[in-house]
Amino acid sequence: MASSLHVSGVKTPYPAIPKRVSSLRPVWSHQRLNFSVAVAPVSCRAQTLRVRCEAGKVDVLERHTECQGSEEISNELTCVMKFGGSSVASAERMREVADLILSFPEERPVIVLSAMGKATNKLLMAGEKAVSCGVSNVSDLEELDFVKDLHLRTVDELGVERSTISKHLFELEQLLNGIAMMKELTPRTRDYLVSFGECMSTRIFAAYLNKIGVKARQYDAFDIGFITTDEFTNADILEATYPAVAKRLHGDWINDPAIPIVTGFLGKGWRTCAVTTLGRGGSDLTATTIGKALGLGEIQVWKDVDGVLTCDPNIYQHAEPVPYLTFDEAAELAYFGAQVLHPQSMRPAREGDIPVRVKNSYNPKAPGTLITRARDMSQAVLTSIVLKRNVTMLDIVSTRMLGQFGFLAKVFSIFEDLGISVDVVATSEVSISLTLDPSKLWSRELIQQELDHVVEELEKIAVVNLLQHRSIISLIGNVQRSSLILEKAFHVLHTNGVNVQMISQGASKVNISLIVNDSEAEQCVRALHSAFFESDISELVSGPKSGNGLI
Ligand SMILES: Nc1ncnc2c1ncn2[C@@H]1O[C@H](COP(=O)(O)OP(=O)(O)O)[C@@H](O)[C@H]1O
Ligand SMILES: N[C@@H](CC(=O)OP(=O)(O)O)C(=O)O
């Protein structure tokens, strides 16, 4: 049976009235209903509404915007929510993400989106193929078809206008024609090419929110102050970004509140003014940068896993979520190869001291992982095991006598000159073992030419042994317990017949790195996981035992 209600004093940071009672938070008083409305931010004024409530649905009959004495609410944006490609892979997923956002009526979020599903990979592949397929064959490229079909199907299913993205699809094809004509795909063009993914996903999502009555505004990061180095495909965010982004997003919000929907992953090179990208998975960095710029209360990164896990679930399916991490642990984990977070993404969060929550958009009830400056480490031993494959290792032995000074400096100056960064290092006075950071982040491989050049330069001062196809296994955890970790780890590796070729404990005190052969690495991770996370090591944690050297 339909009933008519007077609803007053509504604290509504949102523009529209939701269609479902489940998205309201009702509080009865004097036969009036006060509630916060779970839709998009647009007006911070209290509103008086007359609604009809029937079978879980609310219809607005009348609306007045003057205040009715409800408490004041803050006008500020509160948090940033980033949704990765897997979270916005289809129209259905976009709908679910919209519902998810609306299920947090107390938040006034900035939304950061990645490209839909596999769009980035497909765009890259289309670019590679366009180099050699010939202009007349571009329109038949299977990857272009995939991208077109995915985006057009999504707009159709969401009921938004095709014109939302038709200009981008047209320009994308033009760009691929250009690549085919030039027979060349430079890093600069590659960045421009992949930017279409984020530019389209955000436009579609913003249009959908607006269609369901939630006021949203789309932003291209390169237009709102994301200023980066001109290092195409792996650009760094410059300091000027923070004030510029804050000014733009905050200014627009104050003037005309609407949920900001920002492209992840993209920036603008400060010299070239061309579109740059922040390295694969760079939308996490976009989110933490916005969090710091606006001084928001929390940064949420929504993925397809229940948080940061004890190891890569693709290597070992029994990996468990890690409830708490410090920024240092998360940064180390990301840097040493855990795909779940972008390697640089913790920097802005740590600088702004803003908590980061990693959540699962497919399972929002799961608590996820909370990353903060500090956490209780009293019971912590190992937090997570990370594997970085296909790493190159160099053994460099000085040709000079013992006691020689300046050897390390000379070696590292060669790497600096060649622009190659080093991951893990172990040294003695006359020898250095080190692993090289795969500088080509897009393929995660150093190219042979670069390697030959490094070896040639180093051989002027040392005997060099180049070892390829190695893996770094990083044990992230409480290095105050390094002896315990090492004892257990070496026992496991010995039992599995694995020889560790190099070991390093970084100054960060959260990471012990072990180098093994690629072919043995996954088996090592599984065995280490069983030993540390699936057996009881609590008696070892409780304190040093006399005579056994633990802890
Ligand atoms: N330690 C780990 N914890 C969680 N996920 C991990 C870990 N290592 C690798 N992964 C992989 O990272 C994926 C999530 O990261 P990513 O694909 O970048 O998410 P999104 O695209 O949603 O931002 C997971 O699906 C998982 O396969
Ligand atoms: N779309 C980009 C950027 C990104 O952050 O993606 P995701 O959030 O899906 O990892 C990529 O695939 O690298």
TrEMBL record:
Subcellular location: Plastid, Chloroplast
Pathway as given in its UniProt record: Amino-acid biosynthesis; L-methionine biosynthesis via de novo pathway; L-homoserine from L-aspartate: step 1/3; Amino-acid biosynthesis; L-threonine biosynthesis; L-threonine from L-aspartate: step 1/5; Amino-acid biosynthesis; L-lysine biosynthesis via DAP pathway; (S)-tetrahydrodipicolinate from L-aspartate: step 1/4
GO cellular component: chloroplast
Pfam family, one: AA_kinase
This protein's UniProt keywords: Amino-acid biosynthesis, ATP-binding, Chloroplast, Kinase, Nucleotide-binding, Plastid, Repeat, Threonine biosynthesis, Transferase, Transit peptide
Enzyme class: transferase
Domain ACT: 396-474
Record-listed E.C. numbers: 2.7.2.4
CDD domains: AAK_AK-LysC-like, ACT_AK1-AT_1, ACT_AK1-AT_2
Protein name (database record): Aspartokinase
Upper lineage: Eukaryota, Viridiplantae, Streptophyta, Embryophyta, Tracheophyta
